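Mods, move this if it's the wrong board.
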Amino acid sequence: MPVPPVRIGLIGAGRIGASHATVIARRVPEATLTVVADPRPGAASELAEPLGARGETSVEALLASDDVDAVVIAASSVAHAELITAAAEAGKHVFSEKPAGMSLAEISAARSAAAAAGVALQVGFNRRFAREFVEAHEAIVAGRLGAVRQLRSLTRDPGRGPSDPDVVPPWTIFTQTLIHDFDTLNWLNPGAQAIDVVATADSLTSPGHPTLLDHATVVIRYDNGAIATAEASFAATYGYDVRGEVLGSEGMVTMGEGARSSLRVHDAAGRVAATSHSDTELLIDAYTGELAEFALAVQQGRAPSVTGDDAFAAFAIAQACIDSMTSGARAGVAR
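Not the wrong board. Structure tokens:
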């Protein structure tokens, strides 16, 4: 007997919410979009109705809906932990965009709420579903690289930096951007735990700004002896850039180059490749994969492959970066 699709309610009709809504409705056969909630007048209905769903201005109404089995949270990051808890208490399975909370205490409370309610909790670390990263992980797990020794992950956002540095919350580069890289490095070094970090960051697009950090490099030590670096920039004029590299005792694997295709144009300007200029462009298949995994986990009654524990581990590195920047010294990673 066919398993019915998971009925999903989406919270947040902003940029990433709009992308997730379209992916759920058009690219994930295991799921169906039934409701979109956003407090801004008309925002939810404008997104939902062309996709065959309905709009609500109230999260409470979405959580009380009988036609919602699971919730996808794409609201502001500061609301993630509270929304995870509310959804879990309403008996809904939960997919939350990263981070799962803005502190380790918030993330611990959110994952405890999901466990107490017996619902699935998945966090949106999309690189685990990008084809090249998946193949790299499989090679590492299979032992093709031998012992993992050095790792590198980077994220560079397109553009010339924030148009208004004052609206970027402090520590965003660690908690919102590099959080992906921290999870990627943990995943590509299976079985190991981060011990400590040294973080260096500054405002290079707005020198002297009191809170903006738009470039950062982090060095992470793991308990298996591996050393990793994570790098981020908010000002890559050439496009959105996500890459990784792992060096082992028996080989190396690299992934990501930012190009939209293998096409290269050779002309008077040189050798040119078209690059992606947004995460939803470069990683659309990864976004599809993570939402399909969530729907399948709900259908199969199992834990998703990315859990609240993974969210805690990645944010623990982000918090250690903040501690390192504050103290000017190496900082330990909480477990």
